[in-house]
Design goal:
By secondary structure, the chain is mainly α. Helix content is 81%, strand content 4%. The protein has 12 helices and 4 strands. Helix 6 packs parallel to helix 8.
């Protein structure tokens, strides 16, 4: 980067001892105008200042003016020297011509002619001397004029130098003011940076405190939320339990009502009561068993099978449902399935085992498995000697055996 202000005086030229000036590069850190933070000259950094400097430099280019003046002076000197040299050559040429002519005419002419010629030559020589004198005078005048031009140029150079010094002083004063302003700006900038840094620290501290307070409140809210959710879940469980208990109680009430209707012979009403019971409590196995009994009485076999099967699926330990399903298969002449149901009922341990053994013996008898039927009836009588159906089955089997025997 070239400094817009600094000029350096170089060595004097050999001709007329004129001084030469050269532009200088920027001194950067060594210059008081260099703005280290922006890595720029303060003149360039301040657009208004550099605009003024550029306007002055555009108006006055002293280096170029000095070089133009010096070049013009040299051209004038060279032109005068060349003109004198040409005139001298012309005079020498005329003298040589005259001398040659005199030698020729001296051989061919008389003394009179020689005198006339000598007068003519002398006249020519006088003219030449007059011309030479005038040329010398002209040369002296040119040298005097050149001396005046040179003195005027030197005066202008001196004035230009003085103007540069004055401008430099003005620039220096302006630069001092700019430096002072820049110093103030830098001080304000440092103060502003310090203020911003302090504000940022205070803001960060306040944000940390607010974040901590928000985290604490959030923790409290989460804890409160957990308590509310736990209370709500507990309340929901209580509500569900209460609803379940109410539903089960309503289902048992409809089941008991169906039992009453069944014993009074109101089969349709009993079926509706049992259906309502299983609707209220889909896991009510006893209601499904009772519903199967009603469907059996109403001869709705498929619905009865589904009801008994559902009761067994809900509570496999209900042997009565297996016994009732076995009786349904028996009534439909499906003795194999009936036998299996009676066997399962005995394995599960029903309350009236004597009755189940009787039913088991009856289904075995129909399958012509007479020894097993005999054993089942005997077990039924052993459990209940007053079991007339078992006794009847034994009598029938003995009678059939005697007839065969």
């Amino acid at each position: 980067m070239i400094c817009p202000l600094m000029l350096k005086q170089s060595n004097r030229t050999e001709k007329k001892n004129l001084e030469e000036w050269e532009r200088q590069p920027c001194l950067e850190e060594a210059c008081s105008l260099y703005f280290g933070r922006k890595k720029k000259c303060a003149l360039f950094y301040n657009s208004e200042t550099i605009h003024e400097v550029r306007k002055i430099l555009e108006k006055v280019d002293f280096v170029a003016s000095f070089q133009v003046l010096q070049s013009g002076l040299e051209s004038v000197r060279e032109g005068l020297t060349e003109e004198v040299r040409c005139r001298q050559a012309e005079v020498d040429r005329k003298l040589s011509t005259l001398e040659n002519g005199m030698q020729v005419f001296a051989l061919k002419t008389s003394q009179e002619m020689e005198d006339r010629l000598t007068q003519h030559v002398r006249k020519s020589l006088d003219e030449v001397q007059a011309l030479s004198s005038r040329m010398e005078q002209g040369r002296a005048q040119w040298e005097e004029r050149l001396q005046k031009v040179e003195e005027r140029i030197l005066d202008e150079v001196q004035q230009g130098r003085q103007m540069l010094l004055e401008m430099g002083a003005a620039f220096q004063e302006q630069l001092d003011r700019i430096s002072l302003q820049l110093g103030k700006v830098l001080d304000r900038e440092r103060d502003l940076d310090e203020t911003i840094r302090n504000d940022r620290l205070r803001m960060e501290e306040r944000l940390r405190e607010e974040a901590e307070e928000n985290r604490r409140r959030m923790s409290e809210l989460l804890a409160r939320h957990e308590e509310i959710r736990a209370y709500y879940a507990s309340h929901q469980e209580q509500v569900k339990a209460a609803a379940e208990k109410s539903r089960q109680e309503a289902a048992r009430e409809h089941n008991n009502r169906g039992v009453v209707f069944f014993h009074r012979g109101a089969r349709e009403a009993a079926a509706r009561a049992f259906e309502k019971a299983v609707e209220l409590d889909p896991d009510y196995a006893e209601a499904y068993n009772n519903l199967g009994l009603v469907y059996t009485e109403l001869q709705r076999t498929e619905h009865a099978v589904q009801a008994f099967t559902r009761a067994i699926a809900l509570r496999p330990e209900i042997a009565e449902a297996r016994n009732n399903l076995g009786l349904l298969y028996y009534s439909n002449l499906d003795y194999a399935k009936a036998t299996e149901m009676f066997r399962q009922a005995l394995e599960e341990g029903c309350r009236d085992r004597s009755m189940v053994y009787t039913n088991f013996g009856n289904s075995l008898y129909q399958l012509e498995r007479y020894p097993e039927a005999l054993s089942a009836w005997e077990k039924a009588l052993a459990l209940n000697p007053l079991n007339r159906n078992a006794r009847k089955g034994l009598s029938l089997l003995k009678q059939q055996t005697e007839e065969v025997g």
